[in-house]
Amino acid sequence: MRKILISALLLALIAPVSASAHQPVTIEDNETTAARGPLLVDGTISFAVRAAFTKSGQKKGFRFNLQEGEQLSLQYLIVDKSPENKLKNNRLPQLVLTAPDGSKTTLRFTERTKFYEPYGRTNYLYLSRISAVGQGGTYNVDITARTRAAITVAVGDKEIPGDVLRGAAATSNPSPSATPTSKSTALTMDQVKQNNSARSCWSVINGNVYNLTTWISSHPGGDDEIIRLCGIDGSKVFSSKHGGDMQAVSRLNSFLLGKLTT
């Protein structure tokens, strides 16, 4: 009996850590379709994709890749606070998932299960979950607002850092049998130097190019810590501040544009 109790306590302690480790990705206002949105290179890695809407009819989207037979894992969540938790289901953003074979699934809200995320100290509600054997290729996720609201779409379950491609770095039609990587797009230092302000902030870190613009306002260390990286090779600065910090590295990976060409 004592062993059972100890095991249960250990599981209770371990579970929240795993659930809280989803790598955050924010869909920007100009990413209005799945084709224009971020591409999660490996959809088995855990991501928390956040989409905030200010009005009815606003659209956003993203994509993720799976190999044939890999696990498809997707959940729809909202923060357990007003206004989202006060909205009826038919007022929450609609999510349509399009599989590589073209078949579409409109998520139905089948639950309101409470979930506490300890890292961000945030209470969420699960509204819908999909778990199935995946097809090989790219899944498109298109979200349409029906009023002002914000949602989180959780994808994958492997708690390791993953690559996110945006803009020119994201291939539109990847092969179902091959997962694209950040090496598929090469960016120059001249391009990085041109994006050297808070309005458009690119930086080189360890040979990769990142668009840090949206991180400026949300960085816990303050705006200046990111702005100082704009338009330069910020490898040494980032390493001195965040070396060995997997949370910071995971956050950084969500802004990946591609490889720096020399």
From TrEMBL:
GO molecular function, one term: metal ion binding
Keywords recorded for this protein, A-Z: Heme, Iron, Metal-binding
Secretion signal span: none
Coiled-coil ranges (or none): none
Pfam families, A to Z: Cyt-b5
Record InterPro entries: Cyt_B5-like_heme/steroid-bd, Cyt_B5-like_heme/steroid_sf, Cytochrome_b5
Cytochrome b5 heme-binding domain location: 184-261
Record-level GO cellular component terms: membrane
Keyword ATP-binding found: no
SUPFAM superfamilies: Cytochrome b5-like heme/steroid binding domain
PROSITE patterns in alphabetical order: CYTOCHROME_B5_2 (PS50255)
Low complexity biased stretches: 168-185
Spans annotated as Disordered: 166-185
Similarity-based family: Belongs to the cytochrome b5 family.
Protein name: Unannotated protein
Organism name: freshwater metagenome
